[in-house]
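Support reply, case 0932

Customer input (verbatim):
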Amino acid sequence: MAVTEVAFHFGAPDRLAYACRLLRKAAATGARLVVRSSPEIGAALDAALWNLGPTDFITHCDQSAADAVRGRSSVLLVDADGALDTDFPILVNLADDVPKEFEQFQRVIEVVSTDEQERNLARQRWKLYTERGYTITRHDLKSRAGE
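Our regenerated output:
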């Protein structure tokens, strides 16, 4: 089995807006992603995905969706304490902790805003990944002009 790729996207000024752009770009390539978050963040992300422009629609559903709907969705939204679906090979983690099952995914993407508390929680997740021997790719969003 291939080793899970782990990437941190640091410094998102608007975490939900950045997650929407990330999901839109990935879904356009045919990727399937599961997004793990708190119920509040999941509801906000669901609303944001519905409010993208008509040409930017991303097929998505939540963890309660029927298998037929999941099978047609590019993005699955799950609560942090819910079961993860590895039929979606990319995990976008917007939760405060690292899921036990993260190693079952091809890729894990951590999106971190500029909020200090969120950055501190991200440092704990980074430490856990490195303690398990993962090399982490870091994307500093603040260094990208215009984002």
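We compared this against your earlier run and they match. Two observations from our side: The CA atoms of residues 8 and 110 lie 5 Å apart. The radius of gyration is 15 Å. Please reopen the case if you see a mismatch on your end.
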